[in-house]
Amino acid sequence: MRPLDALEASLMAPRRFTLDEYHQLLHVGVLKEDEHVELLEGLIVDMTPQGRPHALVISRLNRFFSRALGEAYSVRPQLPLSLSPDSEPEPDLAVVTREEEEHAEDHPRTALLVVEVSGDSLRVDRLIKGRVYARAGIPEYWVVDVNSRTIEVYTAPGAGEGRYLSSRTLSGDETLAPSVLPGLVLHIAELFA
């Protein structure tokens, strides 16, 4: 079988959906609420299944943030964020203000911190989701790579550029203090213990 040429590929371009259309597909039952999909840049994308290391890291992060943050913030594990007219990702973890969660029309439209736990989804999390979160102005984004046992920290979203302007990678005995949540310190080794 030969590869598609540019004309053939353009004739077969996927249909992109708006956030309103995506919600309508859920409302009328075309998409079921328990389907593991999310809307990214207009495309309905299957979410990667979770293995044990992935689930364990999400559980540990959820416990860490929930204990440390108290009532002023809401820790949202694997719940939607309505970030733009064409994107509603379901990050592994998002920290939002209590006010944002309680007053959002559908789902929160912003977050202070978003975390994606990655294994097979590393490229999507770095590139596509990183672009979605940067464009939405999320101030801090973490990609937790369970395979390399590292955390990539992205800050300074360049909304116009669709990318974060600053990044660093932490591992081993290092600690991570989220810039948007002063006073918190995460020991990276404990996350992967």
Structure description:
This protein is an alpha+beta fold and 193 residues long. It has one domain: tt1808, chain A. 30% of the residues lie in helices and 26% in strands. It has six helices and ten strands; from the N terminus they run ααββαββαβαβββββα. The protein has helices at residues 6-11, 19-28, 52-69, 98-103, 122-135, 188-191; strands spanning 37-40, 43-46, 73-76, 93-97, 113-118, 140-145, 150-158, 163-171, 175-176, 186-187. The strands form three sheets. The chain has a six-stranded mixed sheet. Strands 1-2 form a two-stranded antiparallel sheet. Strand 1 (37-40) and strand 2 (43-46) form a beta hairpin. The longest helix has 18 residues, at 52-69. It is globular. The mean pLDDT is 91.
Q: How do the helices and strands line up, and which of them pair or pack?
A:
Layout: H1 6-11, H2 19-28, E1 37-40, E2 43-46, H3 52-69, E3 73-76, E4 93-97, H4 98-103, E5 113-118, H5 122-135, E6 140-145, E7 150-158, E8 163-171, E9 175-176, E10 186-187, H6 188-191
Parallel strand pairs: 5-6
Antiparallel strand pairs: 1-2, 3-4, 4-5, 6-7, 7-8, 9-10
Pfam families: Uma2 (PF05685)
Protein name: Putative restriction endonuclease domain-containing protein
InterPro entries: Nuclease_put_TT1808 (IPR012296), Restrct_endonuc-II-like (IPR011335), Uma2 (IPR008538)
